[in-house]
């Protein structure tokens, strides 16, 4: 099999891994090196940087050979699929040639587990070392740390990559034991803890020694499959909260499970991926990271799943009408963020604009407030929008109507993730 045939097989096998954001990379241009993490090119796999730019990565597996037989995975060892593997030299040469042709900006490298986690990671390290040292590639690299890899190899991988991620696979231990019994919670969480601890140590080293080697400077991320098991949104969101609190992850990615294999324990192949549920979880994740919400505020045991009709913030507002209306001329930043239709940017604009004078309803739209949602939950100088009248039933209908244009229509991809993260 030549390199282009391998590329076809291994890029197709990598399509179920969506955690390929390049946000957080900060490698600037260096004399004698090629590539950096700040230029934008057109190419293979579209991703987005921290400042919102669309960038491109070569997203590929080192190999789709795998010693594990996870029931949900298209690359499991018992699946009859075409197999391929790059040598480290082939992968490094392919990446650098794609970069020189202006196809890509960086590399997103994952892999099946070939022989063992350590053996596979050694091959990945050889490929990345060729890129960094022989080809002097200074662009963005995101590498997967394979559960079960020895700490010494995770250390080497982190010194070569900008970001690391560990696939935690399924959202509960029960799901893991049922669908991936060869994997363990401890094997997955151990490298996550190592990456978090080592990254923190590295930040302290860089304060004292400016030229100390950087360890995964863009941090780490992970993924969750949504819909392969019966785990509730509350269960997934509590897990997410724990990962952010304890492991300081940059992102948790979610993906609606795409039935790619037949198995009695999995959804049937004719079942559509739960795209809307994935969408709601991403919205809730945003509330956790930027709006000061906690998982237990958004869902509870009586309501363990999000209302598909409205976004999580509107759902919270409907359950806490005693908090509203919020007066935009006097409310603090945290209270403004609780108003549906008011985001981080518009809340800051409100705080800035009201220093110059009292705000009125007509001013809010100019400041970026989405009034079709916010109008029910705020006042400006003690007033609501002219002619606004609603009951609790009509309020819900209005929010549902405001939500319809933003519902997801795109195709879903498969991902992976746990319950407790102690």
Summarize the SSE layout with pairings.
Layout: H1 3-13, E1 45-48, E2 54-61, H2 88-100, E3 106-110, H3 117-134, E4 140-144, H4 151-160, E5 163-165, H5 173-179, H6 185-208, E6 220-226, H7 233-247, E7 251-256, H8 275-290, H9 295-298, H10 312-319, E8 326-327, H11 333-337, H12 344-353, H13 361-366, H14 371-374, E9 378-379, H15 392-403
Parallel strand pairs: 2-3, 3-4, 4-5, 5-6, 6-7, 8-9
Antiparallel strand pairs: 1-2
Helix pairs in contact: 2-3, 3-4, 4-6, 7-8
Provide tags for this entry.
422 residues, TIM Barrel, 15 helices, two-stranded parallel ribbon, disordered C terminus, alpha/beta, seven-stranded mixed β-sheet, 2 domains, single chain
Detailed description of the structure:
This protein is of the alpha/beta class. It folds into two domains: 3-298, TIM Barrel; 314-403, no CATH class. It has helices at 3-13, 88-100, 117-134, 151-160, 173-179, 185-208, 233-247, 275-290, 295-298, 312-319, 333-337, 344-353, 361-366, 371-374, 392-403, and strands at 45-48, 54-61, 106-110, 140-144, 163-165, 220-226, 251-256, 326-327, 378-379. The strands form two sheets. The protein has a seven-stranded mixed β-sheet. A two-stranded parallel sheet has the order 8-9. The chain is globular, with a radius of gyration of 23 Å. The model is unreliable at 37-43 and 410-422 (pLDDT under 50).
């Amino acid at each position: 099999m030549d390199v282009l045939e391998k590329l076809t097989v291994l890029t197709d096998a990598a399509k179920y891994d969506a955690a390929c954001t390049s946000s957080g990379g900060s490698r600037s241009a260096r004399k004698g090196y090629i590539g950096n993490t700040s230029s934008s090119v057109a190419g293979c796999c579209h991703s987005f940087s921290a400042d919102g730019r669309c960038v491109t990565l070569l997203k590929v597996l080192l190999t789709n050979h795998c010693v594990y037989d996870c029931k949900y995975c298209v690359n499991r060892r018992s699946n009859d699929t075409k197999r391929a593997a790059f040598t480290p030299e082939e992968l490094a040469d392919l990446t650098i040639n794609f970069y020189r042709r202006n196809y890509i900006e960086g590399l997103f490298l994952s892999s099946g587990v070939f022989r063992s986690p350590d053996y596979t990671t050694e091959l990945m390290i050889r490929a990345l070392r060729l890129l960094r040292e022989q080809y002097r590639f200074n662009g963005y690299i995101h590498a997967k740390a394979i559960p079960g890899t020895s700490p010494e190899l995770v250390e080497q991988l982190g010194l070569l990559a900008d970001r690391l991620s560990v696939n935690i696979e399924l959202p509960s231990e029960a799901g893991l034991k049922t669908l991936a019994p060869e994997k363990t919670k401890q094997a997955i969480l151990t490298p996550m803890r190592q990456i978090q601890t080592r990254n923190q140590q590295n930040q302290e080293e860089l304060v004292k020694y400016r030229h100390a080697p950087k360890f995964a400077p863009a941090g780490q991320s992970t993924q969750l499959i949504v819909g392969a098991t019966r785990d509730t949104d509350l269960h997934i969101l509590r897990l997410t909260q724990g990962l952010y609190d304890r492991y300081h992850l940059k992102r948790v990615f979610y993906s609606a499970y795409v039935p790619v294999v037949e198995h009695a324990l999995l959804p049937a192949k004719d079942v559509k991926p739960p795209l809307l549920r994935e969408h709601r979880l991403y919205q809730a994740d945003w509330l956790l990271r930027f709006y000061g919400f906690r998982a237990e505020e958004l869902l509870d045991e009586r309501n363990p799943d999000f209302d598909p009709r409205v976004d999580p913030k509107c759902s919270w507002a409907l359950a806490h009408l005693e908090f509203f209306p919020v007066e935009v001329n006097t409310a603090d930043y945290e209270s403004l963020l609780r108003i549906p239709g008011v985001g981080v940017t518009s809340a800051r604009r409100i705080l800035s604009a009201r220093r110059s004078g009292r705000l009125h309803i007509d001013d809010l739209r100019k400041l970026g407030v989405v009034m079709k949602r916010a109008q029910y939950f705020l006042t400006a100088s003690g007033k609501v929008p002219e002619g606004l009248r609603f009951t609790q039933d009509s309020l819900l209908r209005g929010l549902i109507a405001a939500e319809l244009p933003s519902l997801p229509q795109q195709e879903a991809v498969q991902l992976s993730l746990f319950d407790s993260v102690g």
